[in-house]
Every structure is written in structure tokens, then in C-alpha cells.
Amino acid sequence: MGKKIGLYIHIPFCKKKCLYCDFVSYENVENNLVSEYFNSLQRELIFYKENYDIEIETIYIGGGTPSAVDPKHIERLIEFIYSNFKVKENCETTIEANPESLNEEKLKIYKLLNINRLSIGIQSLNDIELKVLGRIHTSKRALEILELAARYFENFNVDLMIGLPYQNIESFSKTLETVISFGPPHVSVYSLKIEEGTYFYYEYDSLKNYLPSEEEERSMYWLAVERLYDFGIYQYEISNFAKKNSECKHNLKYWDCESYIGIGSSSHSFFEGYRYSNVSDIKEYINSIKNGYLAVDTKEYIDDEEMEKEYIILGLRKIEGIDLLKLERRFNIDFMKKYKTQIEKLKKYGLVEINSHFRLTKKGMDLANIVWQEFI
Ligand code: SF4
């Protein structure tokens, strides 16, 4: 039986770079380079086919903006995967899309390709917020796409952002209620992080007066938790909410420390005991693969001690927390004994709770970084 993995495919192309974005993505790339990139993805897959016996349980096509490329590339890639690997029946297959590059025609093609989950980068339905973020879609376009997504896809995710310049609790509430009215089975709510190297980072001084306070940002977060719950969209991870049985199986693999292989520039893998990442530069990626080498940039062996820490930190991201029986069996430890000091300290501050599971409290979710620190 093959080793079960999740497959992540990075498509690093976008129509236009958003002003807060620190993902590896390139705008206005010539068609030739896009074609070469997709050829390299196939070559990278061949390496795994020739060296390992794997069964693909989930496929996640992320970016960048996968919907920005000609769907013929996606079609060739998916056909290649199905004809070269064992793929689980009804394999959860996600494609990320943005409103400006998605249309009904593409949705129909994706459906024919066994893509059964769509993840749409809506971020906000307020035109001022969208403009400041440098997003190129309008709220009108986003609404049209939400309507199409709900019509064509049983399973779709809507990405929303909080903590945006000019955003306030009213504007977020309006966005949230409108999104809920489309009945999404899955919603992700991410806080804006101003990362080094982005336009927002360099313009922080002129932006900071327009950012909501931390308190306001937290209110938006808890409003999302509450309102989504009212509509049966339950929080199952710090930033993720889903109707029952619509949780993202692919992302759960990350939080459960299961194996996944990332292909494409800047993709990350956890496979055969190693965490590794590919080079970010697409030309370097293409050349390396063309010359018969994997385009690995960083690689680290994860020993048991390291794995245990990752298992705790990632597991705490899930609302149900960590099943202590599973943890103790997997790492052959007495959790309460080994982490007595950390647990007592975190409990004293009301950041964690323990029964059969070890999990964050509401307060712990707001201060999750402090909890992670205890296990690093
Ligand atoms: S669409 Fe997404 S990946 Fe592309 S530039 Fe904007 S935030 Fe970055």
C-alpha cells in the first residue's frame, strides 16, 4: 500500500501584486514562462513517482492565483496526476481562485476536472478596504462570483480578512453577513499581518492611523466566531470555520503532522521525516528541475523531540485541541509529567484547558503566540 500524502501545488502567478502580500507570486508573466513552469511541475512529480510508492489523498492547488492561468494548464496537470499516481476516490481537490480571474467557463472546466472544492479570496466586500489592499476586484464582482460558486460548487471556502485599514466592526459585520447569505460550507478569517518587504511594511507610518486597534480587530474575530456558529459554520481551527464534514481535509493534514508533498517554487513538504522547501525564484526552480535536480532550498530532519513540539503547537491550532491519548501513544511520553511546568503556568493564566484533550481557551486563542512560546 502506498504512503498516503496530501499534494500541494504552488501556482505563483497573479494578475497584480496586492500591497500587503508576501507570498511568492509574480505578476504579468509571459505565457512561455507559465508553460515552462507547468512542465517543470510534471517533471517534479515524475521524481516522486519514480522514487516512492504514494497514494494521494488530497490535492490543493494554491498560489498565487491558480484561477489566473489558462485552465488548460490545470487540466493537463490534473490528468497527469491521475494517470501517474494512485489517487484516493473522491479525493478532496481544492483550487484557489480570485474574483477578477474567475468566470463561469472556468468553474465548469474545474468541475469536469474532478476539482470539488473552490477557495475564493474575497477578503472584504467593502470597496474602500479592497482598494487600499490593492486587490483588483470590486465588491460587485465578488458578489457575482459568490453567486456562481454557490451554484456550481457544493463545497467552497471564502477567505476573509480582519484588521484592515479603514475597516471597522460595522463594515466587517456587513461583509460577514453578506458572505453568510451565500451559504458557504467553509469560511477562513485571517488577520492582516504586515510583513517585511511588502508595500504595507514600507508605508506603515502613513497607514497606521487607519488601522483598527487590536481590541477592535479581536472584536471582529469574535464576531465571526459567533455569527458563523449561528449559521452552523463551526470553528475548527484558529482561523477556519466549516459546516459539519466540510472541514478542509488537506489543511487538517498540516495540523495533524501528516505527510504532504509540495511541488512548485517555494512549496513546502513534510515527507519521510524531513521538512523541506523549494526555491522561491521561478526561473531558478525551472532550471534546477530542467537539469535533473530537485529545487530544494532548505531541508531539515525532524527528530522525535522536534516532531513532538510541532505536534503540540500545530495541534493546539485546532479547536478540539490535542487528543492526549494519541499524543502519548505516538511519542511514548507522559504528557502531564513531561510538560508539568508549562501546563501549570498556562493554566494559571487561563490560556489552556485539559481533559481528554489539551486545548486553548478563548483567552488562549487571543494570546496563542504566548502559548506556542512555551513549546518552542
Ligand atoms: S492575489 Fe493573493 S497571492 Fe496574489 S498578490 Fe494578492 S494576496 Fe498575493
Describe this structure in words.
It is a single chain. The two termini are 35 Å apart. The chain is of the alpha/beta class and 376 residues long. Strand 9 and strand 10 form a beta hairpin. The chain is globular, with a radius of gyration of 21 Å. The protein has a nine-stranded mixed beta sheet with strand order 9-10-8-7-6-5-4-1-11, with helices on both faces. The protein has a three-stranded antiparallel beta sheet with strand order 12-13-14, with no helix packed on it. A three-stranded antiparallel beta sheet has the order 15-17-16. 43% of the residues lie in helices and 24% in strands. It contains 17 helices and 17 strands. It has two domains: 253 residues, Alpha-Beta Horseshoe (pyruvate-formate lyase- activating enzyme), CATH 3.80.30; 53 residues, no CATH class. Helix 6 packs parallel to helix 9.
Which features characterize this protein?
about 375 residues; alpha/beta; pyruvate-formate lyase- activating enzyme; 2 domains; nine-stranded mixed β-sheet; three-stranded antiparallel β-sheet; about 45% helix; about 25% strand; globular; binds iron/sulfur cluster
